[in-house]
Amino acid sequence: MLWRVADDVQVNERLVIPAAELSWRFSRASGPGGQGVNTTDSRVELSWDLGGSDLLPPSLKERAAERLAHRLVHGVLTVVASEHRSQLRNREAAAARLAGLVAGAIAPPPRVRRATRPSRGSVERRIADKKRRSQTKRNRRPDDY
Hints:
Blueprint: E1 9-10, E2 16-17, E3 22-27, E4 43-49, H1 58-67, E5 72-73, E6 76-81, H2 87-106, H3 120-140
Antiparallel strand pairs: 1-2, 3-4, 4-6, 5-6
Helix pairs in contact: 1-2
């Protein structure tokens, strides 16, 4: 899939961040690229104003803001991609990274684990295995101990 600067970002099957809410910045990247690294703006910064967006319902926006609090600067989520030599591939990487972050942030919380106890049989088998292993190691020792 080719990403142009004006493309939307598909977060999941029901959520698409429209291009009008995205802000792209391009700059020169360090790293691989040979002589071209000095002339091409291949580093990509993609920003989305989570706080100012009306895309998400208030409950999801609150959940996302809470989970992404360490990444938000004044309510704006920014991702950077500079691992590829071409700007196009870095755009794709930045869009995929943003989509993954937002999808993870709005995902429902996992089900709470109910504490359970091991069965008596499993405990007995574990203890028997430990005793058997202990005996095996004891049999390997020299007799003078």
